[in-house]
Design goal:
- Helices cover about 40% and strands about 20% of the residues.
- It has helices spanning about 10-25, 65-70, 95-115, 145-165, 180-195; strands at about 1-5, 25-30, 30-35, 35-40, 55-60, 80, 125-130, 170-175.
- The relative contact order is 0.16.
């Protein structure tokens, strides 16, 4: 099984890589499938990355057309899309410039990911990490934060990809990633949600 993890250098990404490496396989309808390769993708890489023979770190602007398609090839089975949680630096002086940057980092990256999924030989399973801030108070009310609004847009795009049968997808809305126990719980949730997809 080949897995792609976007946002892999983040604390959540590093925790997920550790969890996947320790687990060694993911459950599918016909039993556990060994993890043979993990493509850990991010725009930048921190100094202390988790290392394992199955993990290949790839650095690049994955919102660029065809970057992910070339990197993923045609044999990706599973995707953990954590990059929708990364709107980038805090808002600055010019909201219009900030919006462009935010959309490039989240929306364009998610769109490029969905586009790359169209070339896979099997329908990939995508688990998108989102935030509880993506939910408003009900109805069509706005998300609770800038990160929440961007994550909600990415959720909808991946859901549309599932409706069009490009991917199978699930969304996990995470509350907080403030400490190690919260990260461990988030990783367990992401893997568990993946394993419930049939």
């Amino acid at each position: 099984m080949q897995i792609v993890v976007t946002g892999a250098s983040s604390p959540l990404g590093q925790s997920l890589l550790r969890g996947l490496a320790a687990k060694g396989s993911l459950s599918e309808a016909d039993g556990p499938v060994p993890i043979r390769r993990i493509l850990a993708v991010d725009r930048a890489q921190g100094p202390a990355l988790f290392l394992d023979d199955r993990i290949e770190y790839v650095r690049g602007a994955f919102e660029q057309p065809r970057f992910l398609a070339r990197m993923m090839g045609t044999a990706t089975d599973a995707i953990f899309h954590l990059a929708a949680l990364d709107p980038g630096p805090e808002e600055g002086e010019d909201p219009a410039v900030d919006l462009e940057s935010d959309l490039t980092r989240t929306w364009d990256g998610t769109r490029a990911l969905l586009d790359a999924c169209r070339f896979q030989t099997v329908q990939p399973k995508v688990v998108i990490a989102s935030t509880v801030e993506a939910a408003g108070q009900g109805g069509c009310e706005a998300a609770r934060s800038r990160a929440g609004a961007l994550a909600a847009m990415c959720e909808l795009l991946i859901a549309e990809g599932a409706r069009r049968r490009i991917v199978q997808s699930r969304c996990v809305r995470l509350a907080t990633l403030a400490d190690e126990s919260a990260l461990a719980e988030a990783v367990a949730d992401l893997i568990s949600v993946y394993e419930t997809m049939r």
